[in-house]
Amino acid sequence: MNAKQVEKFVMSYLEATGCTIVEKTKGGVTVRLSPEADKRLTNRPYYWSFVERTGAPPETLTFAWQFAQDDDESEEAPAGGLTNRTPDAAGGAQPAFAFGAPPPVRVLREDVYFGSGRLTQIFGAVHEGGRCVALFEEPPRGRGDRLGSNPYTAWLGVNFKVEYECDMKREEMFGWGISLATGYIDERFLDSLRGRKLTPRLPSNIHLLPNGLSLKKAMTQLELTLERKLKTGDFEWAVEAEERRQDELRRIRAYYDPMIARAEADEEKEALRQRLSHRESEIDWQYRPRVTLSVMNCGLFHLPGIH
Question: Is the whole-model pTM more than 0.85?
Answer without folding.
Answer: no
